[in-house]
Write a structure and sequence with these properties.
- Homotetramer.
- One of its GO terms (molecular function) is hydrolase activity.
- It catalyses: Endopeptidase action with P4 Glu or Asp, P1 preferably Glu > Asp, P1' hydrophobic and P2' Ala.
- The chain has helices at 17-27, 55-61, 81-101, 125-132, 137-142, 162-165, 169-180, 225-228, 243-261, 265-269, 277-288, 302-321, and strands at residues 35-42, 45-52, 66-72, 110-114, 154-157, 184-193, 202-206, 232-242, 296-297.
- The protein has 2 domains: 3-244 and 296-333, HybD-like (Rossmann fold, 3-Layer(aba) Sandwich); 245-291, no CATH class.
- Strand 1 and strand 2 (45-52) form a beta hairpin.
- The protein contains 12 helices and 9 strands.
- Helix 4 packs across helix 12.
- Strands 1, 2, 3, 4, 5, 6, 7, 8 and 9 form a 9-stranded mixed beta sheet that branches.
- The radius of gyration is 21 Å and the shape is elongated.
- The protein starts with 16 loop residues before the first helix and ends in a 14-residue tail after the last helix.
- It is of the alpha/beta class and 335 residues long.
Length: 335
């Protein structure tokens, strides 16, 4: 394989398959073997479906073989309640279809795992989602004859992080799976993006689970089918961007601005005008890392954003997992 397609060469930190695919395309235009992509737009909601079919494709974009669905809504941060309801409805339908495509039956028992640290707002997505999903397993255990048709067994847990519990998150989840025996695990986690505009406006669904190094915190041991013994679907939302990425993006915007004003950009920007994006990003990191300044950055309105998008995911999951809930009227079930 042409090593120029290896995402690691670009030294970019992103948990989104869409961004990894975009980065490789920017540097090597043309069709990428082993990676299939389909995109469309529906009234301000942009959907991209990526299927990584080979090891070659996996190495090229730095993502495991599997299916990735990305829902982007650029105006989601405008506090538009009607748009939020539409996004929740779209998410419910896409997730329901995702379950069907991956062979999950309508009666499969589900465990929802909210990963992250509830004390750190950008990392609290998972715990907030678990607070708002409809859990039913105890009804099936205690009073099965009183459960109405159209509901399935759903349980939810927020296992915390290593710094709080002293136990690896995957070990806690593994123990719960062994005791409660779900047919499917849904892991919800906060992610990192390479684009500021995607923070808190993007949802990714993947059937590859949560792997070491992904998410805002490094979970080390993965939460995957190989570890747990049951299929794992990951839902993630980018809530942070690395400072080096912001600096690099700012330099790109400066270059673009000056090129509109003058042709002598080399006299203003010097070597920065001639560097490739990956070279410029590596230079920025070389400057920031020794100073300890390659921070993770999140918007100041993160408290409101995280609640909104967590409610979108929770209400969408409720509709997708329980047939009795009308997926066309998800708003009625939003907390």
């Amino acid at each position: 394989m042409d090593q120029r397609n290896d995402l690691q060469m670009y030294n970019v930190r992103t948990d989104l398959a869409l961004e990894a695919r975009e980065l490789v395309s920017e540097n090597n235009p043309g069709r990428l073997p082993g990676v299939e992509e389909e995109s469309y737009e529906d009234d301000g909601i942009y959907l991209t479906k990526i299927k990584v079919t080979t090891e070659e494709g996996s190495r090229a974009i730095g993502k495991l073989p599997g299916h990735y669905v990305t829902i982007e809504v650029p105006k989601l941060r405008n506090k538009d309640s009607k748009l939020q309801d539409r996004v929740a409805t779209r998410f419910a339908k896409e997730f329901e279809q995702f379950l069907a495509d991956t062979g999950v039956s309508k009666t499969a028992k589900v465990l929802i795992v909210g990963l992250g640290n509830w004390n750190v707002t950008p990392d609290a997505l998972g715990p907030i989602v678990t607070e708002n999903v409809m859990v039913t397993r105890h009804y099936f255990e205690l009073m099965p004859d009183q459960v109405a048709p159209g509901y399935r067994q759903v349980s939810a847990v927020s296992p915390g992080v290593l710094g709080i519990t002293g136990i690896e998150t995957s070990e806690i989840v593994q123990g719960i799976v062994e005791m409660s025996k779900p047919d499917l695990v849904i892991a919800v986690d906060a992610l990192a993006s390479r684009a500021l505009e995607r923070v808190n406006t993007t949802i990714q669904i993947a059937d590859t689970g949560i792997n070491p190094g992904s998410g805002v915190g490094n979970k080390r041991k993965g939460i995957t089918k190989e570890v747990l013994g049951v299929p794992v679907i990951a839902i993630g939302v980018p809530t942070v961007v690395f400072a080096s990425t912001i600096v690099n993006s700012s330099i790109e915007m400066l270059i673009s601005h000056f090129k509109k004003e003058t042709e002598a950009t080399d006299k203003i920007l010097g070597m920065l005008d001639t560097l490739q994006e990956n070279e410029r990003l590596m230079l920025v990191k070389e400057v920031l890392n020794p100073l300890g300044h390659d921070l993770v950055v999140t918007p100041k309105e993160i408290d409101e954003f995280i609640e909104d998008i967590a409610n979108i995911i929770a209400s969408g999951l409720n509709a997708a997992l329980h047939e009795a809930i009308d997926s066309d009227n998800v708003a009625a079930y939003t907390h």
